[in-house]
């Protein structure tokens, strides 16, 4: 399947485009706003330990592990060659990677201070269940982001991408507006920050 990465069991795990390492000036501007907002919400959460669900090649979770020395950081994702290749390149003494799906997480209740899912929930078959599992494993906060719809698909169509799918990025199973995503997360706690770095929605939730 062109343009996406697929796990060993055929699940779309993400897109091959490296938005974090892009040199495209437009992408860099968008990602600068995205990463700045994420850093601000992470600083507000002040995690003592962190579980990153759907960590991909480990770009963000590795950065967080480096900024949280001595604190436990765990990243999980599916079995897929490029994902595990990224893990091998991004190591830290306090960082552990595990291969597993996002459903039915094998962690104890409140085992982590913070659980994150950054650009992940649009890919999972049952996002409500995944969020419930994240909330079970986290004691204080959830930090999550998804593409903001229908803006995301409109931007894809404007650049001529995925026209036969009406702008839907391959692998995106779920779609939320800013309001509907906030409503979903409010089922698990208090939405203390709702941010909109263009074209995403990002929330910090106090459990």
Verbal overview:
A 7-stranded mixed beta sheet has the order 5-4-3-6-7-9-8, with helices on both faces. A two-stranded antiparallel ribbon has the order 1-2. Helices cover 32% and strands 26% of the residues. The protein is built from 6 helices and 9 strands; from the N terminus they run E-E-H-E-H-E-H-E-E-H-E-H-H-E-E. It is globular and about 45 Å long. The protein has a single domain, classed as Rossmann fold, CATH 3.40.50. It has 207 residues and is an alpha/beta fold.
How is this structure best summarized?
It contains six helices and nine strands; from the N terminus they run E-E-H-E-H-E-H-E-E-H-E-H-H-E-E.
Architecture blueprint of SSEs:
Elements: E1 4-6, E2 12-15, H1 25-45, E3 49-53, H2 59-67, E4 72-77, H3 81-89, E5 95-99, E6 112-118, H4 127-137, E7 138-147, H5 151-158, H6 178-185, E8 190-195, E9 200-206
Parallel strand pairs: 3-4, 3-6, 4-5, 6-7
Antiparallel strand pairs: 1-2, 7-9, 8-9
């Amino acid at each position: 399947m062109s343009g996406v990465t697929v796990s060993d069991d055929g699940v779309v795990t993400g897109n091959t485009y490296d938005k974090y390492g892009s040199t495209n000036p437009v992408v860099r501007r968008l990602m600068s706003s995205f990463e700045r907002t994420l850093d601000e919400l992470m600083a507000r959460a002040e995690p003592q330990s962190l579980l990153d669900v759907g960590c991909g090649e480990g770009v963000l979770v590795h950065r967080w592990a480096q900024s949280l020395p001595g604190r436990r950081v765990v990243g999980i994702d599916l079995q897929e060659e490029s994902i595990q290749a990224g893990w091998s390149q991004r190591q830290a003494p306090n960082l552990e990677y595990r291969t597993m799906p996002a459903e039915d997480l094998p962690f104890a209740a409140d085992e982590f201070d913070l659980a994150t899912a950054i650009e992940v929930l649009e890919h999972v078959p049952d996002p409500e269940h995944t969020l419930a599992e994240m909330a079970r494993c986290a004691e204080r906060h959830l930090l999550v982001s998804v593409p903001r719809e229908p803006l995301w698909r409109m931007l894809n169509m404007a650049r001529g991408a995925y026209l036969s799918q009406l702008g839907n990025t391959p692998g995106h199973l779920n779609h939320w507006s800013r309001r509907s995503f906030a409503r979903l997360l409010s089922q698990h706690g208090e939405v203390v920050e709702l941010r909109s770095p263009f074209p995403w929605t990002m929330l910090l939730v106090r459990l």
